[in-house]
């Protein structure tokens, strides 16, 4: 009897127990395992054993806790592992609160409500918004990186200023020495023939520049080019005319100047030049490729022209003096190609007469040249000009700027020489740095590329295998050296090309 009574009591207690306490459901957690790494493969096995998985949900067998492991990718948390925890742990938080690991690149969280591991939440110090938290982390890193970069830039600029000041000091000494040994300058001009526009029969437009429109025409039975500048461009007109009027400037590699004048109707200025049948070097190279010997002819005449322009000549018989002139705007648009396949320099609107005795003349030219720097073809600007380290009074710097541009022109010509490319397939014509920086290149991108990264146009690797390849590379590198003082002179470039002609005639 007693035993039966006890059994009854126990049965009643059991029923009461069942009805007074709800049936405890098993914890359900989001389940996701990335299987891309060995590490995750191992985790896969461990976490799969923590409960039965159905799709993206796991019902936990041994624990009441969900876990989440998140990587931060591009500032956004990406779940690596979502599962039930493998062993029972204390997990009082209802939401999955982030615990940073590995320098804030990896976070874990643990929580105790169903499917709570699908979203990571952020503590007070991390702010409620994960993105702003990561932005803060990212910002901190960015500030450190920018700080380091600024410091490095400061060091580079300081080093360059130091070396520039040294060079300037050195140059000042050498250029003042130059002034002393030069014969007194004569500032002579040859008399220009004034041309009446009615004497010229104008035909079609053959070119346009920043300021000018150029027509083909006939004058006294010869084909000529007439360069018109609008009335307001008297200054550019005078600068160019003054260069052409310098004594002894006539040379086969400098465009022949025939005269100048002013149109009575619209008051525009004009300069009459011999006509160059192939137009500019730019349009010539755009249309055709050359043989090795033809390319040397172009390069030879081009370097002869610049060497002559830079020369300081005194004719003892006539007492005429040609001062050195820096072109300052050399580009393939300002070099013309004659019918015989030789180059001639033109467009002296930005040029500077060096060692002129007339101080006002030089100042007046300087202002003009600042305008030229803004308008001239960016591609050909030497690093020291891009950085603004050139003292416009120092003749040597200006001539070295021309030599840098000459190096780029030689590269432009040889890149269109079919004999330097397998099967004669020279690439299409490109301006210097067009390949690297695109056709709409900016001053900023050029400064970064040319000055700070010290990069130059691409020299094809296969040239090294050609008999003349090493000599070409060496010549180009000696023209566009970042140290302007280490560059060759136009005269020595001309000599190197002559020796290329005799050593490697195909
Ligand atoms: N003597 C010439 N014979 C044939 N074409 C010529 C001649 N002179 C100039 N041209 C053509 O006209 C174009 C513009 O001439 P030029 O460079 O003198 O003008 P510009 O306005 O001074 O140029 P820039 O924009 O360089 O200042 C040349 O690129 C060339 O195509």
Characterize this entry briefly:
GO terms for molecular function: ATP binding; transforming growth factor beta receptor activity. Its main location: membrane. This protein has 13 helices and 21 strands.
**Helix vs. strand class:** alpha+beta
Q: Which ranges are low-confidence, i.e. pLDDT below 50, for 5 or more consecutive residues?
A: 12-22, 164-186, 357-371
Count up the helices. 13
What is the distance, rounded to the nearest whole angstrom, between the alpha carbons of the first and last residues? 127 Å
**Share of β-strand residues:** 15-25%
- What small-molecule ligands were found? adenosine-5'-triphosphate
> Under CATH, the topology of the domain at 280-503 is which?
Transferase(Phosphotransferase), domain 1
CATH superfamily of the domain at 280-503: Transferase(Phosphotransferase) domain 1
| Main sheet attributes: strand count, strand direction, barrel closure | 5 strands, antiparallel
Average pLDDT over all residues? 81
Polypeptide structure, described:
It is a single chain. The chain has 506 residues and is α+β, with helices and mostly antiparallel strands. Among the domains are: 28-143, Ribbon (CD59); 280-503, Transferase(Phosphotransferase) domain 1 (Transferase(Phosphotransferase), domain 1, Orthogonal Bundle), CATH 1.10.510.10. The protein contains 13 helices and 21 strands. The protein has helices at residues 2-20, 38-48, 130-181, 234-244, 281-287, 292-310, 359-375, 383-386, 395-414, 434-437, 443-452, 469-479, 490-503; strands spanning 28-30, 32-33, 51-54, 57-60, 66-73, 76-84, 96-97, 99-101, 106-111, 120-121, 200-208, 213-219, 222-229, 257-262, 269-274, 313-315, 320-322, 325-326, 335-337, 343-345, 352-353. The protein has a five-stranded antiparallel β-sheet with strand order 2-6-5-9-8. Strands 11-12-13-15-14 form a five-stranded antiparallel β-sheet, with helices on one face. Strands 1-4-3 form a three-stranded antiparallel β-sheet, with no helix packed on it. α6 packs antiparallel against α9 and α9 (395-414) runs antiparallel to α12. The chain is elongated. It binds adenosine-5'-triphosphate. The site of adenosine-5'-triphosphate has 24 residues, from β11 and β13.
């Amino acid at each position: 009897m007693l035993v039966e009574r006890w059994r009854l009591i126990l049965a009643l207690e059991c029923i009461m127990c069942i009805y007074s306490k709800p049936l405890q459901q098993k914890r359900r957690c989001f389940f996701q395992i990335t299987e891309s790494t060995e590490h995750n493969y191992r985790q896969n096995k461990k976490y799969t054993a923590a409960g039965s998985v159905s799709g993206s949900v796991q019902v936990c067998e041994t624990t009441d806790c969900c876990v989440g492991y998140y990587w931060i990718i591009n500032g956004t948390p990406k779940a690596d592992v979502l599962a039930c925890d493998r062993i029972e742990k204390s997990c009082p938080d209802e939401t999955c609160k982030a615990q940073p690991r590995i320098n804030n690149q990896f976070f874990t969280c643990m929580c105790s409500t169903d499917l709570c591991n699908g979203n990571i939440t952020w503590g007070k110090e991390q702010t409620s918004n994960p993105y702003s938290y990561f932005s803060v982390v990212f910002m901190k890193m960015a500030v450190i990186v920018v700080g380091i970069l600024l410091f490095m830039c400061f060091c580079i600029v300081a080093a360059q200023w130091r070396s520039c000041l040294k060079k300037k000091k050195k140059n000042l000494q050498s250029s003042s020495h130059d002034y002393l040994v030069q014969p007194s300058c004569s500032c002579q001009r040859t008399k220009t023939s004034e041309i009446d526009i009615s004497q010229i029969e104008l035909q079609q437009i053959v070119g346009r520049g920043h300021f000018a429109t150029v027509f083909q025409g006939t004058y006294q039975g010869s084909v000529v080019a007439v360069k018109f500048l609008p009335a307001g461009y008297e200054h550019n007109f005078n600068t160019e005319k003054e260069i052409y009027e310098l004594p002894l400037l006539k040379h086969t590699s400098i465009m022949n100047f025939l005269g100048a004048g002013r149109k009575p109707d619209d008051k525009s200025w004009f300069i009459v030049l011999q006509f160059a049948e192939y137009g500019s070097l730019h349009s010539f190279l755009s249309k055709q490729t050359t043989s090795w010997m033809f390319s040397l002819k172009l390069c030879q005449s081009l370097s002869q022209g610049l060497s002559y322009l830079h020369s300081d000549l005194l004719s003892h018989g006539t007492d005429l003096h040609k001062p050195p002139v820096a072109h300052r705007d050399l580009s393939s648009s300002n070099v013309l190609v004659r019918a015989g396949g030789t180059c001639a320099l033109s467009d002296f609107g930005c040029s500077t007469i060096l060692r002129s005795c007339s101080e006002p003349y030089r100042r007046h030219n300087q202002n003009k040249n600042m305008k030229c720097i803004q308008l001239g073809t960016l591609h050909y600007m030497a690093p020291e000009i891009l950085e603004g380290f050139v003292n416009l009074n120092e003749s040597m710097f200006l001539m070295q700027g021309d030599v840098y541009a000459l190096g780029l022109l030689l590269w432009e010509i040889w890149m269109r020489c079919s004999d330097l490319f397998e099967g004669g397939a020279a690439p299409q014509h490109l301006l210097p740095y067009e390949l690297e920086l695109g056709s709409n290149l900016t001053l900023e991108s050029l400064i970064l590329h040319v000055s700070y990264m010290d990069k130059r146009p691409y020299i094809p690797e296969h040239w090294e295998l050609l008999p003349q390849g090493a000599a070409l590379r060496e010549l180009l590198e000696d023209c566009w050296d970042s140290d302007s003082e280490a560059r060759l002179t136009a005269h020595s470039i001309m000599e190197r090309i002559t020796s290329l002609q005799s050593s490697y005639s195909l």
